[in-house]
Specification:
The protein is mainly α. The protein is built from 3 helices and 2 strands, in the order αααββ. It has a two-stranded antiparallel ribbon with strand order 1-2. About 0% of the residues are buried.
Length: about 100
């Protein structure tokens, strides 16, 4: 497994908008090389006879029926409001 060069680590760090010390660049270079080595190992696996996985479950349309139910009264809905202005929640002004 080959080491990832410093320029590549710096480019990835710039994309992630993080600053790395020279020591961290060395550590991440070794770690990324190991991670990419795992992907190369996965690429060696023969998957020609495996069907693509589109969904994790064969269940379809697991939605409940959309039956109307009674809703809260205005007093119940606003009962715990810290501030109230008529039939509305009152909130602090934002800038």
């Amino acid at each position: 497994m080959s080491k990832i060069d410093r320029a590549e680590i710096k480019r990835v760090a710039a994309l992630a908008k993080i600053e790395l010390t020279d020591e961290e660049i060395g550590v991440f270079s070794e770690q990324m090389a190991k991670i990419l080595g795992h992907f190369l190992k996965l690429a060696e696996v023969d998957t020609n006879s495996v069907d693509p996985l589109v969904y994790l479950s064969s269940d379809e349309n697991l939605f409940r029926e959309d039956d109307p139910v009674p809703c809260l009264s205005l007093d119940d809905a606003l009962g715990n409001a810290a501030l109230r202005s008529g039939p509305y929640f009152r909130v602090p002004k934002t800038r």
